[in-house]
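Why predict the complex rather than its parts? Because the way molecules touch one another can change local conformation, and only a joint prediction can capture that. The input here totals 451 residues.
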Amino acid sequence: MKSDNLIERYIYAISRQLPQKSREDTARELRTLIADMLAERCGEREAAEEDIRAVLIELGRPEELAQKYLPQRQNCLIGQPHFRVYQLVLKIVLAATLFGLSVAMVVELVSAPPANYLVKFGEWLLSLFSAGIQAFAYVTLIFALFYRLDVKLDEEKDFLKDLPELPESARAVSAAESIVGLVFTVLFALAFIVLPERNIPIWIEGRGLIPLLNPEFLRNLKPLLIASMGVGIVNDITMLVERRYSVPVLLTHLLDAFLTGLLAWAFFSAPKLFSPEFLDAAKGVELPNLFNPNVPLIQLWLGRLLLGLTFLGLVAGSISAIAKTIRAAGESSRQ
Amino acid sequence: MEQKEEILASFVTEMRRGAIALAVLSRLAEPGYGYQLVRDLAESGVPVEANTLYPLLRRLEEQALLRSDWDMREGKPRKYYQRTPLGTEVYTSWRVQWTRFSQSLNSLLEDSHEIR
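Output of the joint prediction:
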């Protein structure tokens, strides 16, 4: 009775680790296998407990045997090729979290000097820790899910085309460039979308830190801001992953430029662009109409010039990106 | 010394890993059950442990190279495995490749200047 129990417990230790549909089948097969092995070992005599022990030891540890029944893919949380992308995304997200929280703390220190700097520093460390853990958990969870569901990563079959450019090549995009872009995008997102009432803090003697732009204007612009930031982040990440000019990089770049242009146009044509606090502080500045809340910048020659230069910059950047993409494509087709 | 044996053991394991599936497929033109195969293969000089063979049979079944039937007539229920038509096709082609590869490898080994 006791030894029967041993066999059943051994089989259960294996079958409980298997998928539901094959559990019963495997258990039955193993039961017969153990009976066969015992019969061979004992012949006609009754199997003693030590025979059972010997047979089970020969079969090996239940978790190892169960492992052999499971498909290889399931053996880890995140495997290749997902792991490679996971590492990259995790690094970027953690770095952006660290940077964003640090900047937020600096802004807070400047706008409202704390009574106790040590406590503030402790708070910062604590927020860094908890935000870091959360970021880590979310990214890990998402990629574990991707891996388990076998979500296809968009990997070109022709991997020779995707080999990274050597660092000295003019066609290569430096990682630093995209990381700086990513950080700035995150900063803008923080300033304009998350904290519109702070937006661009400027220091005015006697008034302290006041926002440059009108928070209400930014709130109204929220959908466009979010779209623009989103595309900006996607563009920076594509550049970071591809490390060279390619069609996806070009497309996100063009979309990004278009949205930035739209945003610039919205800024320049808006009445009440500046915050009331700033307008109040700017009273008496000898620039006719520049800080007049009823006159959009686009109606002034200076405003038109600045907007024109912005558009020129965006168009020039897009043409340069198109040219670099064509050259990069030519380069890889020659290889 | 121990390191040398470990390295050798891992090479031998790697070498046997795929070949065992070929050996199993070769025996299952007619239905056979797990433990019968364990004994059969051991007698033919290709010993495979039960804890390797049983999961392998299951995997080959999942790949549709083998199909199975339970035989409940005797006291112990037995799961009999047999090659499917797909299994036979794969086995036949694999066998040709195996023969070609082992012949080439053998002549390569005979060419080497090691003392045999």
